[in-house]
Amino acid sequence: MTTTDTVRTARGTGLAYLGLALTGMAGFLIIRPQLFTDSPAETLANLSEKPELAAAAVGIEMAIVLTQALAAVWFYKLLHDIRPVAAFATATFGLMNAAAIMASGVFMATAVAIAGDPSIVSGADAAGTIGVLAHLSDAAWGLGGLFFGLWLIPMGWAAVTTRRFPVVLGWTLIVGGVGYVLSAFAGWGLDGAPGWFVEGLAFPATLAEFWMIAYLLSVGIRPSTDQENRS
User: Fold this and answer.
1) Residue numbers of the domain that contains 185
2) pTM score of the predicted model
3) For residue 31, what pLDDT band results from cuts at 50, 70 and 90?
């Protein structure tokens, strides 16, 4: 690709990544807490009484899957000529992110359907069933955190070894990716891990991702360098 084409691809990648960030915040941080709580009965009531918001929650979950898949493919397009292994790893882990979120969406959509028509569960406890589905949705996001972290590591490695992005950004992506993986293990594999510790491990990843989005959209990608050719 020419330099112009590469910068255009970088900005397309940034747009997909920005879409992922916005839909993720809207769905996971804003809409989801309004519907799903620790009480199955309360969750059932929320889904039943707010059908438009419940449908929007499923739609946003689908949008997260779409933007994550697009970001993964565009990162592959951006990186495959300069770091093929990193491009493949970033795209693969990114698509696994999308699969994890899609699983969450399936559980969420089923819970919404049961709230709209409890007869679907044939006399079983609708609230209890929705509680299980909500937990499965949470678990899909929680264990999917492994791939949320893993896809940042090859992305950062490509930045560090090619100098096509700031080196400090590359190391921040790597550290953030490792932290996110450890956060997933702490949150789901370590009994009684404090919330501040789990969230603290994931914080560098958030910083790194927004930095990468801003760089892709504002600068795109640097021209090829001798460092890249030697690596």
Assistant:
1) 3-227
2) 0.91
3) very high
